[in-house]
Amino acid sequence: MLQLGATQIGDGRKIGRQESAKEDTGMSMGTQAVLAGQVDAAAKAVGLMVISSEVGEDFSGHPTTRFKLGLADDKTKTQVVELSDKFDFSRTDLLEEVGVYLAETAKRLKNPRPDCYLTLHGLPLSFDKFTWPFHTSSSGADTFLVHGEVRLEDGEPSVLHAKIAASMTVTFAEIVKAPEQPFAEGFIYNAVRKTMDQGQLELVKSGNRQPVPVTTRYYSPWQKKFNFNDTKEPQRQEYLASKVFWLSGMLGEGKPVWVMDPRDAQYLNTTVAELKKTAELLAGEGLIRLAADTEYATPTEALMGHRAQYAAEMAQALAFIKPTFNEDMRGGHTNM
């Protein structure tokens, strides 16, 4: 248990800055200093800076360090990266992948809402309260878990959310280089979106954690890449237009949003190069305006004129993920 000065956070874990907390969690100053130095150097290399760091605990009570990262020229938007205190990414292959993760983070932090993503069916969601790294299942199952929360973001006050328990099988874990946030956040977020697309996650006002199974069916070992949704060009056009409408027009005050996010490319089973072509087609149709670097876009008046259409699509998606058997059971129409 952490000593006076620690803070209890929403998911039940504890963080604090006190020296006694470091002693209780068994974290040595030397280990923390090595990790902090590695993160600081990797962050600076891509235009990020470590705004603050603090001692934390993972789900199982093991010590972690939580680094709050921000853009060197804009500290108003931040990303928390939580790592096991013994994690050492000095290995070349690990350092390279962490570098890629941080470089993408730097670009994503330029979004007006870096925490928001869109589902293929048109649901704008924020991702928050994910407790890294993975922890072993307390039920005895051979799985690794990470908990988090997604919330509907439609520009209006909303209580609709889903508490997530994403489970990674032992077999799938062999694919992942390390059970840490930089190596898993992307495919976990995409697995959540995919599960939502399948109608297997419900956004509710309150409720228990809902499972998001992450198995080898999402990964092709011979292609060495993830597979979530097989999409064609018309679907990608609809997706990018909807993304710019929601994340820039409705949630971002018309500020530019990153349309060549590799996380979206993985989710749509395409490439960043193909996303660029899609964005250029939308710009040619007068639906979005591309920034000078062509990686970010804002909506045109023509796109924002489709507000009723996107609202209807969101309503349909919400209806799709709401289990009808719940309503039957509430009405007493069940033989269970």
What does this structure look like?
This protein is an alpha+beta fold. The protein contains eleven helices and 16 strands. The protein has helices at 19-25, 29-44, 92-108, 170-173, 181-197, 233-250, 262-267, 272-284, 301-304, 307-321, 324-330; strands at 7-8, 14-15, 48-57, 63-71, 74-84, 116-118, 124-128, 135-136, 143-152, 161-169, 210-214, 219-220, 225-226, 257-258, 288-290, 296-299. Strands 6, 7, 8, 9, 10 and 11 form a six-stranded mixed beta sheet that branches. A three-stranded antiparallel beta sheet has the order 3-4-5. Helix 6 packs across helix 8 (272-284).
Tell me, briefly, the overall form.
globular
Strand content: 15-25%
Oligomeric composition of the shown chains: single chain
Write out the CATH superfamily name of the domain at 233-321. Winged helix-like DNA-binding domain superfamily/Winged helix DNA-binding domain
CATH names the topology of the domain at 233-321 as Arc Repressor Mutant, subunit A
- Proportion of residues in helical segments: 25-40%
CA(first)-CA(last) distance: 44 Å
**Helix-strand sequence:** EEHHEEEHEEEEEHHEEEHEHHEEHHH
Question: Overall mean pLDDT score?
Answer: 87
Question: What class, by secondary structure content?
Answer: alpha+beta
Rg, rounded, reads 21 Å
Which labels suit this protein?
3-stranded antiparallel sheet; globular; disordered N terminus; alpha+beta; disordered C terminus; 16 strands; 336 residues
Short description:
The chain is of the alpha+beta class and 336 residues long.
